[in-house]
Amino acid sequence: xxxxxxxxxxxxxxxxxxxxxxxxxxxxxxxxxxxxxxxxxxxxxxxxxxxxxxxxxxxxxxxxxxxxxxxxxxxxxxxxxxxxxxxxxxxxxxxxxxxxxxxxxxxxxxxxxxxxxxxxxxxxxxxxxxxxxxxxxxxxxxxxxxxxxxxxxxxxxxxxxxxxxxxxxxxxxxxxxxxxxxxxxxxxxxxxxxxxxxxxxxxxxxxxxxxxxxxxxxxxxxxxxxxxxxx
Amino acid sequence: xxxxxxxxxxxxxxxxxxxxxxxxxxxxxxxxxxxxxxxxxxxxxxxxxxxxxxxxxxxxxxxxxxxxxxxxxxxxxxxxxxxxxxxxxxxxxxxxxxxxxxxxxxxxxxxxxxxxxxxxxxxxxxxxxxxxxxxxxxxxxxxxxxxxxxxxxxxxxxxxxxxxxxxxxxxxxxxxxxxxxxxxxxxxxxxxxxxxxxxxxxxxxxxxxxxxxxxxxxxxxxxxxxxxxxxxxxxxxxxxxxxxxxxxxxxxxxxxxxxxxxxxxxxxxxxxxxxxxxxxxxxxxxxxxxxxxxxxxxxxxxxxxxxxxxxxxxxxxxxxxxxxxxxxxxxxxxxxxxxxxxxxxxxxxxxxxxxxxxxxxxxxxxxxxxxxxxxxxxxxxxxxxxxxxxxxxxxxxxxxxxxxxxxxxxxxxxxxxxxxxxxxxxxxxxxxxxxxxxxxxxxxxxxxxxxxxxxxxxxxxxxxxxxxxxxxxxxxxxxxxxxxxxxxxxxxxxxxxxxxxxxxxxxxxxxxxxxxxxxxxxxxxxxxxxxxxxxxxxxxxxxxxxxxxxxxxxxxxxxxxxxxxxxxxxxxxxxxxxxxxxxxxxxxxxxxxxxxxxxxxxxxxxxxxxxxxxxxxxxxxxxxxxxxxxxxxxxxxxxxxxxxxxxxxxxxxxxxxxxxxxxxxxxxxxxxxxxxxxxxxxxxxxxxxxxxxxxxxxxxxxxxxxxxxxxxxxxxxxxxxxxxxxxxxxxxxxxxxxxxxxxxxxxxxxxxxxxxxxxxxxxx
Lengths: 231, 764
Prior knowledge:
The structure holds 2 protein chains of 2 kinds. Chain A has helices at 16-27, 69-79, 89-96, 153-161, 219-230; strands at 5-9, 31-35, 46-49, 83-87, 103-105, 113-121, 137-144, 148-150, 165-170, 189-193, 199-202. Chain A is an alpha/beta fold. Chain A has one domain (5-230): Class I glutamine amidotransferase (GATase) domain (Rossmann fold, 3-Layer(aba) Sandwich). In chain A, the strands form 2 sheets. Chain A has a 9-stranded mixed β-sheet with strand order 2-1-3-4-11-10-9-6-7, sandwiched between helices. Chain A has a two-stranded antiparallel ribbon with strand order 5-8. The relative contact order of chain A is 0.18. By secondary structure, chain B is α+β, with helices and mostly antiparallel strands. In chain B, helix 10 (148-168) links the parallel strand 3 (132-142) and strand 4 (172-179). Chain B has 3 domains: 1-65 and 203-381, PurM-like C-terminal domain (Phosphoribosyl-aminoimidazole Synthetase, Chain A, domain 2), CATH 3.90.650; 86-201 and 435-571, CATH 3.30.1330.10; 385-425 and 573-756, PurM-like C-terminal domain (Phosphoribosyl-aminoimidazole Synthetase, Chain A, domain 2, Alpha-Beta Complex), CATH 3.90.650.10. Classes of the chains: A alpha/beta, B alpha+beta. The A-B interface holds A 11-12, 14-15, 17-18, 21-22, 51-53, 55-58, 111-115, 141, 143, 145, 205, 207-208, 210-211, 213-215 and B 159, 162, 166-169, 251-254, 256-257, 344-345, 431-440, 442-443, 445, 454, 456, 569-570.
């Protein structure tokens, strides 16, 4: 059985092809692009909001993309329990659109950072991490200027108390330290879930870590978990 | 209502005030020549068009005779054109387009936008050929970081490149960063882009087919960057700050849309010609495409979408607003092409049509404001054969007695000093600001000898590198340029790639000064010869003159961007040591067994980082280069990698053998114990930058097979020691001269640039 992925293309998305290739060539699952002006995402099992600079990140990251016609369809899809994952700019858009709580603000240091980081799996039963062990350390790259996760104390407590923190920046041994936090995120948060558990956002790029020649295959734990859940 | 017929020709023009055309950069003879070509005085708009097209930046009026030394360039301009020449075949129907271009002067004045638009411009050069951009590299040079202004320029150039490159989704995978006093006030920003295409998809910059429509696509036109090309053709001065309006503003989001829209629109098959708009904007793109096709063009500048009101014809013709293209579209298919651009949210409007009379007619509504032969603008810039004269400084610096220098007391301290010089130290601070992984093809990340990208759908990979040691070029431009080519090829060999082609960016001082032009001529001679020898023809390039301030000229800096091919992506190699117990071997073109004269390492200290950092000197001659020996080393390394013998390979360059060993240790985070034999003092053995050498590591079991390759290719293969422990220990002639923990070396190397940048920046 196969599951159909949709990769949304906003003007300025630039990791759309990487996500597409990862699903098609590595996961071997059907995948199609979805243009930002589409009014429907019917027929898909999982929607990926890819990384990039939608609308140039002008005004604020994700601030314009949330008004794209396709976002109403994505919201409806999520409301009906469909799986949605936002990666990097996709995470930013999901926060702006209110599908995930909190916001991604500019990195501490105010510079773009592209490098491999270690993240620890905090919840190993979610739709996006069910192939991982709890506490497992994944090596996945980040590439962003605004990945500093921020939310109010109540939201943070709700995330922490309900196992909705998916991934946390850590050192190579899995320890959560300030030095291992590349961007200043609260509680070293690198990825979160919505309340229902069907919408996830993460700053690291799993689609960049799907082949050993790229430096890591750990991103497959995330992507294959989705397939596992869908099938 | 009577309709007045637009004028068919321009008459009754008056002489232009010499002060005006001189301000635009034309001299009196050039003005006379324009009058001769037109048979009348030019209009104001026409003078502006000639001034910019006949500037060195666009017209290569000084460099062209010298550039003909590049064989493929000469053949191309005399034959099939530069487009085909610019595509390098990598087999399986795939071709690589690549080009490098300077944005030095804009970056010196407005570093963020100057660098950003440098990236944007070079990317357009690539996708206008029908190739998808797959990589950027940036070769950057600044004054030393103890100066606040230099830190400011460095910080903002890097963030400008990041701003643009990251947003357009093209990975910035490599390049160089060097710091030298001569670049204070005149930094060098050379941006290179690489694109991948099917050979049959090549697009031409030709306005073919009279009657076809001329469309302007992309951004609206504003007043930014007027006379940028002319600005690039003068020396920088106090007044340059007031030239900020000459610097263009970049919009990488629009560029990203333009990339996708252009590649999609080309697939319609309705675009017969296309050219990006860089220097000289609409003027350059209209006259060049018409000249190439032997046609003419009639355009109405009032159809050009504008972002400002009240722009004159002159301003519209010369604006260098970014993210625009000129497309020649088959008559009747304008809407089909426009629909693609509109889908991506971009303008696409018809501004005129192709004619068969060889003239570019520019209308401002009904008024004819320019009517000039396309070829006279594009191809007939006056050519000057400038005088050359060997600079006086050369003899004294070359004849410096290196034997008179005192040996240092503490070699360990020298090593730690050299490893922390920003020229040698890790460039992580730079490349982590660039998205170097997007498109998921980067299989050797920045920090190794060259970047390697796999070619999706094939077993192949390409290696890409930029190189130039400007100190060597200062000491001897001919040899220095040859070494730039040799080192680029050596870097590629260390990844397992054999060279296929070169793009260059030739940065020099004022060509009207005979000493600077001598440097230029010698460097091009050296580069042309080396490129032929290494089978890496120059397929494209750029010349940047006038890199001078009132205080000084830059060192001659002919930057080489080289492409190489790896047949099997699995057979690639990186610079860091991998396994405890591996044997460390020096593969060298210089035999020490007496069969050939051993190179004197003392002389190889000439122009070295050691001399500069420890003794404050840039003297001597560049290290000796024997291209035959050099090539044999490349062949041996490539073959050993191909046969799977090596676990690491790293080229010996800046800082010499000791620094090469230290770098391989740091990258692998493992120690090494090494013993060297030398016929001269330890400083030379450790830090001389002798050419044609590569440090490799391998399992002991593979040593025999490596020796066989070395014998077969007649290169020296010397076991230096082994990988292991957590210290780098080096003996010279059985005396331990270096012993340092990898942790300490790593700390110095990795943090040198961040620490320099954290210094209180103060006023600049």
